[in-house]
Write a structure and sequence with these properties.
Order of helices and strands: HEHHEEEE
Low-confidence stretches: 14-18
Strand order of the largest sheet: 3-2-1-4-5
Largest sheet: 5 strands, antiparallel
Distance between the termini: 50 Å
Number of strands: 5
Shape: elongated
Mean pLDDT: 77
Radius of gyration: 22 Å
Number of helices: 3
């Protein structure tokens, strides 16, 4: 059971590494760069999910915890087999936990631009952030587009 705190520490670090895909958060690389602004009207808003990250951190952390936990089973060759099986099962579980912990709610926002062109942007959800009929800014640059007020 000494491995359980290690798993929780790993998960806390993993959650702290998650990046935001909110319309209100800019990366350091986006600072001081020119961006284009278009105006439009929200046509519809739909709740969607952003899949979680699959960086491998969860897999490695889970394998380490599972390997240590599995090595405590049996004796001799049983410990080796237990460690290997524990690492495999722990790695699979850690990968699933990483994806689940970093999964986010998001909004699919359909906007009719002032030039009558329709676009859709998906970004992290902010409850009640956008409503159909609302005027918004569509900010584009550095390969990303976001919807803001």
């Amino acid at each position: 059971m000494k491995t359980l705190p290690l798993l929780f520490i790993s998960l806390a670090l993993l959650a702290g590494c998650a990046t935001s895909k909110s319309g209100d958060v800019y990366s350091r690389d986006q600072a001081r760069r020119e961006m284009n602004v278009r105006m439009g009207t929200v046509e519809s808003v739909r709740t969607v999910a952003l899949e979680g990250t699959k960086s491998g951190v969860g897999t490695v952390a889970g394998a380490a915890v599972g390997g240590v936990a599995g090595s405590g089973l049996g004796g001799g060759k049983g410990q080796i087999v237990g460690a290997v099986l524990g690492a495999v099962v722990g790695g699979l579980a850690g990968s699933a936990v990483e994806e689940g912990v970093t999964r986010k709610d998001a909004l699919e926002i359909t906007v009719k631009l002032d030039n009558d062109r329709m676009i859709v942007v998906v970004q992290e959800a902010a409850p009640g952030a956008f409503r159909p009929g609302e005027r918004v800014r569509v900010v584009s640059g550095t390969g990303e587009t976001r919807i803001t007020h």
